[in-house]
Amino acid sequence: MAAAARGETVQDLIGGLVQHFLVEETRRAPELAATLGALRGRAGRLRERGVAGLWVYGPVARGEAMPGGSVDLLVEFAAGARLSLVALASLRAELSEALSTRAELVERATLCPNRHAAMEWEAVRVL
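RE: above sequence
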């Protein structure tokens, strides 16, 4: 019934599911060294965009990342940097593309002190 509801044959549906599982199986978890290399390679571009500091935290920093997982980034902008929602979304998209996985950005200035302290102990500085 699931195949018919999608306008597919059972064979097409099963073939699609097998293909999906094979793609998922070959996905690798983001690794800290590769993440640092990719981000540091873009240091000049990041500074042009007003990034004064960048850190990796979360599962990637702890070596606990899962395949298909995102990379959590803590970002600090230079004083006077011109920020907008569009600029933040554009930066996030650029970082996601550079890392070949989803990047999640948290602005350091927006963290409450308790959350900031919890992130600091595991954060790895990129720039």
